[in-house]
């Protein structure tokens, strides 16, 4: 969490940094700050959004060609002006912006306090900059060397940028565990947590690796490891387009991203599936096809919505490819001494590719010799780079904190993977495989059709916007969809919601049902349709208010439900790609009607780079 951005070159730094911070605001938005170097090293920072910082700066003089900025998601210390970044060192001659967590900050702080350093904030980052200052002074070394030595002292994760009043033409950055991208322009450099603040100016970027220090001085970039070994930067060309990170006329990014799904699902399949040519190929898997054929277990690690996509994948891989699958919360997996075998295939799913727990789970599985497949959206992200192979989801940038198009893109890619592995293992009837390939190609059009339900869903949202609780039920492939629907609602509207397998309801949650409880039941026509109809009866018998997602033409459930939302028919294995759409729209409209900040819900951040 937290977004960092920095600039050094011939342009005015302040507007570039403020615009960059707005693009990174999805990473954290409780306070923001900026440091500008023009003779003096000046810091401006404020609790609140980047727009509050902008108002605070107002028409103060900001002329500078070097600067850095930060948008924060609080870890150490509450969101307020003094905990906002950048942080000065005690001498106020150097300053830092930091994304990550320094775990041994308390011990370092005690030592530094003993040496007379003063702390104006509760943050670990202020400890970091004073440590650098202490080393700089005591070792009589360059600032670059002081940063390098400090990296040996700190434990934890960081992407940092350091500026010094004594070295006005220099910018020092380093990373371990938190992302850092350098944009290379003509006699100018940009640094940021991701490429979105950079693409307007250059499409040439360098992804800084863990334990590397980048020094930009007098127009030149030098990258070395923590051990002072020089590395050759690899410049990549970005394909990202500016309009992909703008709202394009929609009121919120979330709504834009929901409506982008026909396109993003198509992009996830592009070049991988051509049904009439019998073409099904995931480049990333081809090389490892034999591993999949021989696999006797797949472990899936992920968090949040990506974990829900993993649950769908469990059903897909088990049904199609007959490989046992375990789906793990990355945060639990990494700390519970799991059994991992060299023959295991680990699929790590992450939109951002930066989720700290998922990354740590990968490292653990790698250390035991397992093969890692990353399913990531962000190209060049840490998880993508830490994986042995994988597949990008190609959903395009997802800015809304609530994940929507990333989920359907993940499910699309995982479906293609499962089909391809099934084909290689010979575990599926050829006719069913071909039928599913054709059906997959029809999914974008069906999603388009489901999006036409928007007005009806808006009406339902209006009826239920003030209730305190919701229950979501589904069976089979629709069980993960129920979990996802509940997560969407709670994270953006702050209404308590629970997702349950419909049959499990009678083992506890049924006690919650009365005439005030809305129950969203995903009851499309599938192999457990009759069973879920019985579950709906059980809810109805207790006067629950049923909102049913059904297959077009269903003539049974409409008699039982208060509201019915009809989605296009699809093979049950592919239905999550369609049945999730009304749930995304429902949560969106409820949140908007409740006056919630849909794109930046409280307490959350888009990429969770702390453990
Ligand atoms: O970037 P990731 O997919 O690894 O993120 C995982 C979760 O943090 C993320 O899905 C989160 O649950 C979203 N806010 C859900 O909408």
From TrEMBL:
<feature type="active site" description="Nucleophile; for GATase activity">
    <location>
        <position position="2"/>
    </location>
</feature>
<feature type="active site" description="For Fru-6P isomerization activity">
    <location>
        <position position="606"/>
    </location>
</feature>
<dbReference type="Pfam" id="PF13522">
    <property type="entry name" value="GATase_6"/>
</dbReference>
<comment type="function">
    <text>Catalyzes the first step in hexosamine metabolism, converting fructose-6P into glucosamine-6P using glutamine as a nitrogen source.</text>
</comment>
<dbReference type="InterPro" id="IPR029055">
    <property type="entry name" value="Ntn_hydrolases_N"/>
</dbReference>
<dbReference type="InterPro" id="IPR001347">
    <property type="entry name" value="SIS_dom"/>
</dbReference>
<dbReference type="InterPro" id="IPR017932">
    <property type="entry name" value="GATase_2_dom"/>
</dbReference>
<dbReference type="InterPro" id="IPR046348">
    <property type="entry name" value="SIS_dom_sf"/>
</dbReference>
<keyword id="KW-0808">Transferase</keyword>
<dbReference type="InterPro" id="IPR005855">
    <property type="entry name" value="GFAT"/>
</dbReference>
<dbReference type="InterPro" id="IPR047084">
    <property type="entry name" value="GFAT_N"/>
</dbReference>
<feature type="domain" description="SIS">
    <location>
        <begin position="460"/>
        <end position="601"/>
    </location>
</feature>
<feature type="domain" description="SIS">
    <location>
        <begin position="288"/>
        <end position="427"/>
    </location>
</feature>
<protein>
    <recommendedName>
        <fullName>Glutamine--fructose-6-phosphate aminotransferase [isomerizing]</fullName>
        <ecNumber>2.6.1.16</ecNumber>
    </recommendedName>
</protein>
<feature type="domain" description="Glutamine amidotransferase type-2">
    <location>
        <begin position="2"/>
        <end position="219"/>
    </location>
</feature>
<dbReference type="InterPro" id="IPR035466">
    <property type="entry name" value="GlmS/AgaS_SIS"/>
</dbReference>
<dbReference type="InterPro" id="IPR035490">
    <property type="entry name" value="GlmS/FrlB_SIS"/>
</dbReference>
<comment type="subunit">
    <text>Homodimer.</text>
</comment>
<dbReference type="Pfam" id="PF01380">
    <property type="entry name" value="SIS"/>
</dbReference>
<keyword id="KW-0032">Aminotransferase</keyword>
<dbReference type="GO" id="GO:0004360">
    <property type="term" value="F:glutamine-fructose-6-phosphate transaminase (isomerizing) activity"/>
</dbReference>
<keyword id="KW-0315">Glutamine amidotransferase</keyword>
<keyword id="KW-0677">Repeat</keyword>
<keyword id="KW-0963">Cytoplasm</keyword>
């Amino acid at each position: 969490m937290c977004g960092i951005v920095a600039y050094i070159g011939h342009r005015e730094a302040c507007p570039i940094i403020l615009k960059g911070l707005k693009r990174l605001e999805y990473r954290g938005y409780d306070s923001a700050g900026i440091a500008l170097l023009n003779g003096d090293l000046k810091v401006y920072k404020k609790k609140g959004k980047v727009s509050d910082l902008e108002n605070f700066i107002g028409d103060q003089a900001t002329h500078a060609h070097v600067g850095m900025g930060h948008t924060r998601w609080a870890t150490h210390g509450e969101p307020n002006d003094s905990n906002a970044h950048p942080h000065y060192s005690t001498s106020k001659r150097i300053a830092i912006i930091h994304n990550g967590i320094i775990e041994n900050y308390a011990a370092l702080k005690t030592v530094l306090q003993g040496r007379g350093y003063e702390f104006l904030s509760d943050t670990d980052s202020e400890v970091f900059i004073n440590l650098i200052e202490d080393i700089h002074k005591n070792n009589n070394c360059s600032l670059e060397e002081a940063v390098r030595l400090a990296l040996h002292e700190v434990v934890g994760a960081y992407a940092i940028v350091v500026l010094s009043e004594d070295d006005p033409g220099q910018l020092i950055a380093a990373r371990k565990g938190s992302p850092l991208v350098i944009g290379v322009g003509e006699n100018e450099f940009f640094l940021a947590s991701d490429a979105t603040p950079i693409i307007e100016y250059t499409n040439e970027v360098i992804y800084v690796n863990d334990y590397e220090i980048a020094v930009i001085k007098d127009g030149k970039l030098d990258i070395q490891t923590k051990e002072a070994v020089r590395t050759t930067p690899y410049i990549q060309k970005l394909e990202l387009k500016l309009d992909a990170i703008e709202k394009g006329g929609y009121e919120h990014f979330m709504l834009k991203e929901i409506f982008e799904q026909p396109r993003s699902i198509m992009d996830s399949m592009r070049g991988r599936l051509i049904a009439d040519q019998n073409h099904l190929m995931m480049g990333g898997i081809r090389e490892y096809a034999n591993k999949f054929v021989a696999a006797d277990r797949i472990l899936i690690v992920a968090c949040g919505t990506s974990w829900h996509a993993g649950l769908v994948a469990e059903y897909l891989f088990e049904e199609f490819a007959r490989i046992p699958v375990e789906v793990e919360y990355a945060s639990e997996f990494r700390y519970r001494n799991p059994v991992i075998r060299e023959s295991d295939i680990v699929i790590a799913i992450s939109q951002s590719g930066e989720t700290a727990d998922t990354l740590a789970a990968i490292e653990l599985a790698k250390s035991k010799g397992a093969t890692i497949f990353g399913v990531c959206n962000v190209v060049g992200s840490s998880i993508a780079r830490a994986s042995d192979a994988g597949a990008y989801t190609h959903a395009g940038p997802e800015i809304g904190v609530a994940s929507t198009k990333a989920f359907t893109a993940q499910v699309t890619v995982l479906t293609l993977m499962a089909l391809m592995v099934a084909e290689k293992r010979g575990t599926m009837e050829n006719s069913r495989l071909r039928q599913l390939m054709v059906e997959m190609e029809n999914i974008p059009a069906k999603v388009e059709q489901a999006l036409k339900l928007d007005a009806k869903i808006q009406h339902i949202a209006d009826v239920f916007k003030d209730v305190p609780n919701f229950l979501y039920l589904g069976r089979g492939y629709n069980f993960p969809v129920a979990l996802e629907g509940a997560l969407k609602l709670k994270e953006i509207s702050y209404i308590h919601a629970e997702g349950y397998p419909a049959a499990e309801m009678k083992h506890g949650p049924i006690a919650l049902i009365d005439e005030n409880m809305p129950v969203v039941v995903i009851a499309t026509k599938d192999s457990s349709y009759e069973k879920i109809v019985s579950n709906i009866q059980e809810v109805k018998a207790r006067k629950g208010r049923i909102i049913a997602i059904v297959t077009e033409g269903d003539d049974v459930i409409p008699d039982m439900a208060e509201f019915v939302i009809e989605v296009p028919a699809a093979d049950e294995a592919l239905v999550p790609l369609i049945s999730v759409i009304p749930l995304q729209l429902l949560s969106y409209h409820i949140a908007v009607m409740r006056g919630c900040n849909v794109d930046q819900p409280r307490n959350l951040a888009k990429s969770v780079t702390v453990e």
